Amino acid sequence: MRWCSIPLISAALAAGLVMTGCSSVAPVVKFDQVKVAIPVACQEPEPARPQMPTDQLPADVDVDTYVQAAEAEIHRREGYEIQLRQALVNCKRPITAADAATKN
C-alpha cells in the first residue's frame, strides 16, 4: 500500500503547484518618468560683425587719426559684444513648453 500512495502524493503535489501558479498575482507594470537633457541646436542668429574703423585706415596714417579710429572702434566693439552676449544668453535659456509649441 505504501507504493500506491506515492503516485497519489505526487499527483496532489502537482495539482497544488498548478493551483498555486494560477492564484498568484499578475506582475504590476510600473512606468517611471526619467528626465534626460537632450541637446538642441541654438536657432539664435549670429549678429553681423561691424566694420571696424582701424581696418579701413591706410598704412601711413598719422597717430592722431589712428587714436581717434581706435577709440571709435572700442565703442563699436562694446556694442557688438553686447549683441553677442545677448545671443549667447538666448541660446543658454531653458526651453519651455511655450517655446516647444511655437516651434512645431
From TrEMBL:
Signal peptide segment: 1-26
Sorted UniProt keywords: Signal
Keyword hit for Signal: yes
PROSITE patterns with a match to the protein in the record: PROKAR_LIPOPROTEIN
Name of the protein described by the UniProt record: Lipoprotein
